[in-house]
């Protein structure tokens, strides 16, 4: 590799890329891999929640990968438990994800005779009455309060949800183009800027999210209303749901450390990168530390 020659802002030449093109390519890739990868819960579909999740993904890119794998683990185990019940053999992973993100609401007519009189109390009561948690769903299926014929079909689930196919397609195209450019520069022994090294960490975490949540509905346009036969009864503790939502202990820390090591490894690979000034040296290392778990 030839010696590195530092230079300032470079306009786009006719046969190469300038500073503006480099910044635009990296920033667009980082934005798409963090913003478009957002798969919110039904109760957190507002812009404020999405913006907060976006900022958190920028500061901790490995967190969104950890969160996606956590969701996948819960959905897989929920699907496997539901499939053990008679008549539920065709329960899909997409439907399990739909339950995990809160896309189901129970219709319980007996509660409607006990409506509070005050408006605010009724709003709070209704929100709690219709909310269906994953472990409540498991309990109701196990005790046959919800039959397979009462549950939404796969077609109904697809009609009520959006997968953001256009956003995902644009993201995948941008990521593949970025990775192809990185591979070409490495193959031809060309220099790779620190901005591209940083972007590579976001790309790895973003692709992990897309793989883990490939079957997960990205936007629930309208929750599915399910009529449970009989009363709700008592539900068991959240530990009934065989997922990692309430996960604590060694496995949770191990998974977090695994995701964190992805970004830390990329940052450490560029730790001894030559800088043209001490200020740039401290800015890089100072900006890396908050991103490390």
From TrEMBL:
Q: Which UniProt keywords apply?
A: Membrane, Transmembrane, Transmembrane helix
**Keyword Membrane included in the entry's annotation:** yes
Q: Where are the transmembrane segments?
A: 20-38, 119-143, 163-182, 194-213, 253-275
Membrane as a keyword of this entry, yes or no, is yes
Q: This protein's superkingdom?
A: Eukaryota
Protein name per its UniProtKB record: Uncharacterized protein
Q: Which organism is it from?
A: Magnaporthiopsis poae (strain ATCC 64411 / 73-15)
